[in-house]
Write a structure and sequence with these properties.
With about 200 residues, the chain is mostly helical. Helix content is about 80%, strand content about 0%. Helix 1 packs parallel to helix 3.
Amino acid sequence: MFWFVFHPELSMASRGKSETGKLKQNMEEQLDRLMQQLQDLEECREDLDEDEYEETKKETLEQLNEFNESLKKIMTGNMTLVDELSGMQLAIQAAISQAFKTPEVIRLFAKKQPGQLRTRLGEMDRDVMVGKLPRDVYTQQKVEILTALRKLGEKLTAEEEGFLSENASATLSQFEKVTACLGSEDKILALASSGVK
C-alpha cells in the first residue's frame, strides 16, 4: 500500500503555474480580439466614411492602451509573467504608436512566434512575385516582420538588414530607438501611453 503525502507548497506552485498559464491565455485571447478588430476595420475601410473610420480606430487604440495598462499591473512583481508577456507588451507598443499597422504581424510578434513570421515573409515574397501583393504593402509588412524578428532576438541576414534600413519609416525608426535604448519595459510603456494621450 502507498501513502500519498500532501505537500502544500508543491500544490501551490503547480496552481500558480496553472493560473499563470490561464492568465497568459486570457491575455492572448484579448489581444487577438483587439487585433481582429483592427483587421476588420482595415478591411471595411471603404464602407466607412473617414470620420467613422478614424473614430473607430481611435477607440480601438484606446482599448489597446487600456489593455496595456492592465498588462503592466498584472506583470508587476511577477517575473514569470514579465518573461511570458514582454513580447506582448512590445507588440502592443508597436500597435499603439502605429509603427506596426498589420494586425497579423502584431499578433505573431506578441506571441513570440519568429518561425511563423518567417513563414509569412516567405509567402509574401512569393505573392509579390506573382503580383498578388502590391509592392507598397509588401514593403510595409516586410519592414514590420523584420523589425519584429529583430526584437525577438532573431539574426537578420545582411540583405534583410539592408532592406530594413532602406525602408523603415520614421515611426518605426522611433519605435526601434525607444525600445533599444530604454530597455526597461516600464519606460517603453510610459512612453507609449504618453504618445497616445
